[in-house]
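Hi W.,

Here's what went into the run:
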Amino acid sequence: MDKETLEAAFEAGQDRMIEKWKEFLSFPSISADAAHASDCVNCATWLCDHLATIGVQSRLLETATKPVVFGELPGAADAPTVLFYGHYDVQPVDPPEAWVSPPFEPEWRDNRMYARGAQDNKGQVFYVIKALEALIASGVELPNIKIFIEGEEECGSDSLAAQLEEWKDLIAADVLMVCDTGTQIPGTGCITMGLRGIVHFTATLTGSKYDLHSGVHGGKAPNPAVAMARLIATLHDDEGHVLVDGFYDGVVEPTAEERRLANEVPFDAAAYESETGVEPAGGELAFTPAERIGFRPCLDLNGIHSGYGGAGGKTIIPSVATAKISARLVAGQDLGAVLESIVKHLQRHAPPALHLDISDQAVGGPGLRLDIDSPILQKAKTILRELTGKDALLYWEGASIPIVASLQRVSGGEPLLVGFGHEEDNIHAPNESFSIEQFRSGFIYVGMLLSSF
Amino acid sequence: MDKETLEAAFEAGQDRMIEKWKEFLSFPSISADAAHASDCVNCATWLCDHLATIGVQSRLLETATKPVVFGELPGAADAPTVLFYGHYDVQPVDPPEAWVSPPFEPEWRDNRMYARGAQDNKGQVFYVIKALEALIASGVELPNIKIFIEGEEECGSDSLAAQLEEWKDLIAADVLMVCDTGTQIPGTGCITMGLRGIVHFTATLTGSKYDLHSGVHGGKAPNPAVAMARLIATLHDDEGHVLVDGFYDGVVEPTAEERRLANEVPFDAAAYESETGVEPAGGELAFTPAERIGFRPCLDLNGIHSGYGGAGGKTIIPSVATAKISARLVAGQDLGAVLESIVKHLQRHAPPALHLDISDQAVGGPGLRLDIDSPILQKAKTILRELTGKDALLYWEGASIPIVASLQRVSGGEPLLVGFGHEEDNIHAPNESFSIEQFRSGFIYVGMLLSSF
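Here's what came out:
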C-alpha cells in the first residue's frame, strides 16, 4: 500500500482505532507489581483475541512469569519473515496523585491519548496492529509476519531471555521489527542504531558491628561512609574516564562515518539543561554528548547510603555503607567480564580494615550496534524520507531494550528499531501520552514498510 | 562517709534504687525529637520532685528549649561549693527493631539495666543522687552542693550555653563535678583530662530536577552521588591526615608528660576489634590511637545518602546527594573558623555543574584540656585508688560534653570528670545498658568525694 492509500485508511478508521486502543490501555498491566499479575494475563488474553479478530492466528506462550502474545500471518512462499517485537506491560504509576486523569481510564484530550502505556509500548504496538489490520483488509501481498509481544519488559525480561532458545524455530525471522523508541526531533524519522547493555550490583563496606560514637571513636575507628566515598572516587579520573582495568575491553570504536552521523543529530545543551535542570557535563568529557551516550560505556552510582540522613546531625561513625553501582556497556563488550573487572577493582582498593561484600550482581542484555549499510536500513530510510519529507536521523541510544540482542541472536532477524516517541510523552512518568500525529506516523510507516518486501 | 559505710548503705538500698531508676528511665526524653518535647518536661518535673524527696531544694530553670533541673543543698558556712552537672535527655533509639527490650521499658537482665539512657547520662546522674541521698540521711558534713541537670545535651546544649551568664551567681562554684565519662579499663578509676569540641553541618549536592534514566543520561548527566563521593575523598589523604586548609589551626600540642600519660592508658587493639568489630585503623595513622583521640582533631562523615537504596537495582542517575559532616576539634581551636574552612574547601572542590548547599551548621562547645597538677585531681586520684586498689588512669577523651567548657568559664568551678561507663554499655546505640557494679562504683566514689571536702 502506498502512502496516500494508508492515509485514507487511517482517516476512515481512526475513530474505531481510538476506541479499541482505549480498551487496550484500560488494563493495569504493571509487571513489576505482583498485585497486577492477573491484569497482565487479562491484557495478554484481550490482545491475543484482538489479533484473531483482525485475521492473525494467535496464542499465548507460557513463561515463568507473564505470557507472551504470539501471532502468525503466513505470507508468500518465498517471502522473507518479519518478527515484530513489543511489550504489553507498563511501568508503575506512582505518584498517582500527579495524574490529571486516572492512568488506566484513558482520556482523549487535545488530540492526545493520556494513559499509562499510551506510548510505551501499548501505543506503539497498537499502530503496528492497526496498520497490519488495514493491510490484511486490503489484500496486499505481505511477508511472513510473526508477532511477539511480551509482558515483562519493564522488569528486564530476565526470565524471557532464558527461555528464548525453546522458541528458536517459532521465532526464526529475517527482520526483527521493534517500535519501542522515539524520534529525537519531532517531525523527523529516527532509526535507532545502537543500544547499551547493563550490569549492576550492590557493594557493601562493613566496619564496626554497630554505629560508633563519633567522639569516642572519631579518628580511631575507620569510617565506612568515608571509605566508600574514597573507594567510589577511585573509579573515575577528573575527566570522567573510568579507571577500572578492563572496563573498556571489547569496546567497538565507531567508524568515522558513524561518529559523523551520531554528531549530526541536533543536540541543544541549553534545552537539555532547561528540561533536566543540569548541564550535560557528566561522563567522559573528551567525547561529545552523542558519542558518550552512543559509543562509550559508563559507570554510575544509582545510590549510596550510610549512617544518618535525617534532620540536623547525629554523632556516629556508621557501621556500614552500601553503594548501588551500574555500568552501561556497548556492543562488543563481555558484560560478565566487565562486571568482574569492576568488582576486582573495588576489592583491590577497599581498605583492609573494612569488609567488602558484593551482592545482587545482575547482567542484562548485551549492547547492540547495527550496520549503517544494511538493506533493511536503506529501506526504512527511504520510507521515513517519504513519510516526513526529511532525511531520517540515525541515533545511537544510551539505554537498553534488554531482550533485543537476545532476540536477534535466537531469531536470526536483523533488528530495525524505528519508533515515534517524543520526550514530552512522559514515559515512565505521570501523565504519559501519545498524540494522534505520532500514532498516525507509526501507522503509515508500518503500512509502507510491510508492503515493501 | 567511708568506703565501708557506703558499701553497706548501697547493699541496704539497692533494690529501691533500681525501682526508682526504672521510673527515671521510662521517660522517652529524646531532646532531638520535637515529638518528645513534653516527655522531656515530664522527665525534668519527675527529677525535680525526686530531688525534693531526698532533701534537696529543687526547681526548674526555664530555657529556650528544655528546662534545667536545679537543686541546692547548703553546707557549712566556709565549705567549698561543688556544682554537679548532668543531663536527663537521651539519644534517639533508631533502629527500634534492634532493641531486645523496648528502650523506654527498662529491663533488668543479668545484673544490668537495659534502656535508652541506662548509662548516658541518667544512670550516672542517678548514682550521684542516690549517693547524695545516703549522705544526707547519714547527717555527715557536706560541702555546698548545687545540682544542674540539663535537657539538651544530646542536641549540643546550644541555647543553654547562650543563657548561662544569666545564672552566673546561681551556679558559682569551686568544683564542677561531671559524671558523664567512662573508665578505659573496667575495675580501674579514670579521670578525664580533655574533651573535644564538635562542629557539624549538612552538605547537599543537587543536579537534575528529578532522578534521570541511567541509560538515556548515563555518561551525559553529572551524577551527584559520584560527585559527592569524589568531594568527600578530597578531605583526607591516604594516611588519614585532613587536607582542608586551616583544619589544624590552633591545635595545642600536648606536653611530653601529657603524651606519656595518654599513651600509658593500656590500649589493646585486639580487644578493641573484638568489641567493636573493627581495627583501630581510622584517623591519622602517624599518631597512636590515644593521641589521635586525645590531642588531634578529626573529620568524619556521619551519613551519606543519595538515590536508590532498596533491594536489587534501579536504573537512575540520582538528582541529589546529601552528606552529614562533623569535625571533632581540640582545645585551642576556634570552632567557627574551622567550620568555615571545611565549607570553603567543599565549595572550592564541588563540580561547577552541580549546586552545593550547606545547611544545619552547628557549633558546639570548644575543646577542653585540664591541668594535670591541680589539687582536685589529686583528691580524686586518692579516692579512686582506695576504691579500686589501683592508680587511676588519666584519659584525654575524644568525645564532647558541649557545655563543660562554658560551665567552667561561667561558674568558676574547676572541672573534675570521673565516670564509670564501659565500651560495652552501647551508649547512643541499641541495647544501651549499665551494670549494677558500675552503678555501685559510682555511688561509692561520689559518696567518698562529697565527704572529703
